[in-house]
Amino acid sequence: MGFTNNRVLTFIQGCQYLGYAKSYVYKLTSSGIIPHSKPNGKSIFFERDKLEAWMLGNPKISNAEKLTQATTYINTRKKKPIK
Question: Which of 34, 53, 57, 70 has the fewest CB atoms within 10 Å of its CB?
């Protein structure tokens, strides 16, 4: 996939990069779910960086990461003095 170094991907390259069928990518573009451009009103293009950001959207952190965050929060917050 030498095209993955390209900043702008054609529709076919975008489908290959995402690993999705053309019909599914058409559905994503027509419903405005995935970022794309249609400079002449017909051909669809993708910016690789925007596709990557979209693919990494809505991240789910692991239980280990949650534990680390909780431990950091507990250890770094100001403790109220006991009266």
Answer: 57
